[in-house]
Design brief:
The chain is of the alpha+beta class. 30% of the residues lie in helices and 33% in strands. The strands form two sheets. It has a seven-stranded mixed β-sheet, sandwiched between helices. A two-stranded antiparallel ribbon has the order 2-3. The chain is elongated and about 75 Å long.
Amino acid sequence: MTPEQTSDLFAALMRQEELLKQLVAAINKPKLGLHSEAGNCRIYCNRQHGGLWYTLNGEPSDVPQTALTGYLKELRFENTERRKKETCKLLITMQADRTYILECGYDTYFSKSLLTAIATLTPEQLYSPITLQPTPGTSDESVLFCRVWVGSELVMASYNEQTNWQEIWEQALAVTKAANEIAF
């Protein structure tokens, strides 16, 4: 390679780097003007109001979309009061076009299927967006499962009455934490 070709290649790489910086800056810019996406969006994952999941803005409102794709940022358990009773909830934070916080009971089919799937993943698999898909139970109208997709692959993970939930929870939390410490 001649010095002139090397110089041309270096100049082209510098232009490409500048374009990539501009692209990243454009992606990270907040939306300007009027929109409905300020703050977090909390989604309740249960079939209590007829749909698969819903939001609360005074009244329950079904979420018509059948999946959420984004980066899994955090899994955490929180004690809270619902219907004048102390209860434990699993909060799933997903970063997509905005921050979504999914809430479900800590011991529901939704949380168990999600945690079991996440526990089988590696931190590297969580560097890319995943898709969470609420799936209704077939024999019971109140049951809601969570399918987890990595790219176009469904994460197959099963559990039964002998499953050690403490181990599953710890592994899912550890994978999520490790992915976010390294990647971001």
